[in-house]
From TrEMBL:
Modified residues (N6-(pyridoxal phosphate)lysine): 243
Record note on quaternary structure: Homodimer.
Protein name: Acetylornithine aminotransferase
Its EC number(s): 2.6.1.11
GO biological process, one term: L-arginine biosynthetic process
PROSITE patterns: AA_TRANSFER_CLASS_3
Length: 391
């Protein structure tokens, strides 16, 4: 008999009832150190007072009116994002998946309006993850994502990650855009080196292709910059954002240059809930906290400390771990043991990690993780590794 909740997840036997900063409290009272942050969503931890206040204050006034009207909170957040990034304009969604759908539409509409309606192909890469909508799974292209869901949305080409020669050869007169994650998340915490991202930007410039960056997981301060592409000194034409932008409240966005967004006129796209007052009030509070040099400097300092300790963990447990990889507080441990065994041992030792592809466990803690909590994280990860070794 099918359960009342559709069984599309293999859920851990944990029921969390409260969160406090970097900690989750299970129904039985156990306190877990949360190094997953809801898969990079709770960027400021659980129940951050500034976010609680923003949400509570807004909830007492207005929840929803729809995009038929001006929404002051939406305008304020759009202005903040335009001021802080390459973008000239922003469309708000509820999720990264919805952001992917608009990014694909925007790129294709751009070329249609330029009088090149056949320029519809979007090049994407192995190991990518862009959500679970029709466009998202077609962009990822892997059998795991697409099997049983055909016919797939056409117009996507798939190349091996970091194969620049193949990318040069694949771009032709029908190519609309190149779509990639500066740091692959689901694919196993695989950062694209800065020089390669610069080369891809230059190739897009030379061929006229739009560059779409998916910063749903690696954006909003997680890399130690507001957005990960800033480390390479380049800008995209279109960027997908979600997860951390709402700090736990469902919120996403597509940021774009004026040129890339030129085809998206009234009636070409919409959203019932996207950019609602509640979400945007929280988003503004998130930006207040994250978009400061002091906050991002602290992320970089703590990421260096955490990475150094993780290197020691790998050296101490060579039968369990192979390497540390990642950027900022988006780190991965590639495992020799099955990664799900390590995740499960973490549960036993009251620490939350998140599995990923390439036999990796992800460490995506709140960006507010303290130095004391970093030390505690290593104590618990050490215990989990020892448990895996002796199992």
């Amino acid at each position: 008999m099918i359960p009342s909740v559709l069984p599309t997840y293999n859920r851990a036997p944990l029921s969390f009832v409260k969160g406090e900063g970097s900690w989750l409290i299970e129904a039985d009272g156990r306190r877990f150190l949360d190094l997953g942050a809801g898969i990079a969503v709770n960027a400021l931890g659980h129940a951050h007072p500034a976010l609680v206040k923003a949400l509570t204050d807004q909830a007492q006034n207005l929840w929803h009116v729809s995009n038929l009207y001006q929404i002051p909170q939406q305008q304020a957040l759009a202005d903040r994002l335009v001021e802080a990034t390459f973008a000239d304009t922003v469309f708000f969604t509820n999720s990264g998946t919805e952001a992917c759908e608009l990014a694909v539409k925007m790129a294709r509409k751009y070329w249609y309006d330029k009088g090149q309606p056949d320029r519809t192909d979007i090049i994407a890469f192995s190991g990518s993850f862009h959500g679970r909508s029709s466009a998202g799974i077609a962009a990822a292209g892997s059998e795991k994502m697409t099997k049983g869901f055909g016919p797939l949305l056409p117009g996507f080409k798939h190349l091996e990650w970091r194969d620049f020669d193949a990318l040069e050869a694949a771009i032709d007169d029908n190519t609309a855009a190149v779509l990639l994650e500066p740091v692959q998340g689901e694919g196993g915490i695989r950062p694209l080196p800065d020089d390669e991202l610069k080369a891809i930007r230059a190739l897009c410039d030379a061929t006229g292709c739009l560059l779409i960056l998916d910063e749903v997981q690696c954006g909003m301060g997680r890399s130690g910059r507001l957005f990960a592409h800033e480390w390479a000194g380049i800008t995209p034409d279109i960027m997908m954002v979600a997860k951390g932008i709402g700090g736990g409240f469902p919120l996403g966005a597509v940021l774009a240059s004026e040129e890339a967004a030129s085809g998206m006129t009234a009636g070409t796209h919409g959203s019932t809930y996207g950019g609602n007052p509640l979400g945007c009030a929280v988003g503004c509070a998130v930006m207040d906290e994250i978009d400061t040099p002091e906050f991002l400097d602290a992320v970089n300092r703590k990421s260096g400390m955490l990475r150094q300790k993780l290197e020691g963990l790998v050296a101490a447990h060579p039968e369990v771990f192979e390497e540390v990889r990642g950027s900022g507080l988006m780190l991965g441990l590639r495992c020799k043991a099955p990664n799900m065994d390590v995740v499960a041992a973490g549960y036993d030792n009251l620490v939350i990690t998140v599995p990923a592809g390439d036999n990796v466990i992800r460490l995506l803690p709140p960006l507010t993780l303290s130095e004391e909590e970093i030390a505690e994280a290593l104590t618990r990860l050490e215990a989990a590794a020892t448990q895996v070794e002796t199992a």
